Fold:
Amino acid sequence: MSFWIVTDACCDLPVDYIKHQHDLHIVPMSYQIDGKVSEIDLTDDTLAGRVHEFYDQLIDGKVATTFQVNQAEWMSHVSPLLAQGYDVLMLVFSSSLSGMYMTSKAAEKELREMFPQRKVVSVDTRCASMGEGLLVHYALQYRDAGHSFEETLQWVNENAQRVIHWFTVTDLHFLHRGGRLSATSATLGSILKIKPVLNVDPKGRLIPRVKVQGRKHSLKELFEKVEQDALHPEQQTMFISHGDSEKDALWLADKLKEKLHVPEILMSQIGPIVGSHAGPGTVAVFFLDRDGSARLDAPQITK
Structure:
C-alpha cells in the first residue's frame, strides 16, 4: 500500500497542480484582517481571486496576522489516513519561521501511540513558500517512482538543503515588521529605493544577502543567482512564486527559459500566510543546487 504525503498551506502549490497528484493532502491555514478570520485551502478554485483581494488590503495599509497549524489540527487531518491503514510522511514549513514543526512533532508522538502499527514521521523542511512546495514535488516524484516510505524519508532528509530559495521584495516595511530589518534600514532603504535580495540559510531562516537599487536590478539578481547556483538548469523543474506580481514573475520565467533553457517552470501566487510577512510585490525562485552550498550563511553583500 502506498503512503500519503501531508504538508501545510505555506507550500503555496497551485490548485491545478494539487488536483493532478494522488495521496497528497495539504492542511489549510488561516489569517486575520480587521478581525475577520479567513481560511486558506489550496484546493479552493476561488483562492486566486481572494489572494488578489488580500494583497489589495495590504497595499491599503491593512495588517494581517496568521495562525499556525496546532497539534489538534495536525491530528484531525492525519489520523483518518492512519485509520485507513496508510502511513504518512509530514513535510512541514521551516521551524525557524514558525512553531508548526513543534506542533507537528507533538501530533506525531500522540498519533504513534494511537496507531502503533502505522508509520508517521514529521520532517522540518527548513523551506518556505514554493521552496517547501518544490521539496514536496520531488518527494512525490520519488515516491511515485516506486520508492518506499523509508527511502523517500531518507531522500528528503538528504536533499532538503539542496532546495535553494532566492527572492526580492518591494516594501521593506513588511520585512521590518517580521524582524528581518531594523526600522532605520527599512525607512532609509525605502527612500533610496533599495531592494534587498534574500535567501534561506541552512537553518531555514530568511537572510538578506544583496542590496540593489531598483526593481529591475533585483529581478536580474534573481536570474544571476539561478545562473550561478543551479545544477544543470536545462534538466530541472523550477518554481516561481509572487505576491500579486505576475508580470515580474513572468519576466523571470521567460529569462530562465531563454538563457538557461529551463524546461519547466511552475508558477503560483504567494498565499496570505507567507504573504503577510513578505508583502505585495515579492518575487521568489526555487531550484536545486549540487549540495546545498548555495544556502550557506555567507556575510551579507552590499551593492
User: Anything to note?
Assistant: The first helix runs from residue 15 to 19. The chain has eleven helices and 13 strands. Residues 182-192 have pLDDT under 50 and may be disordered.
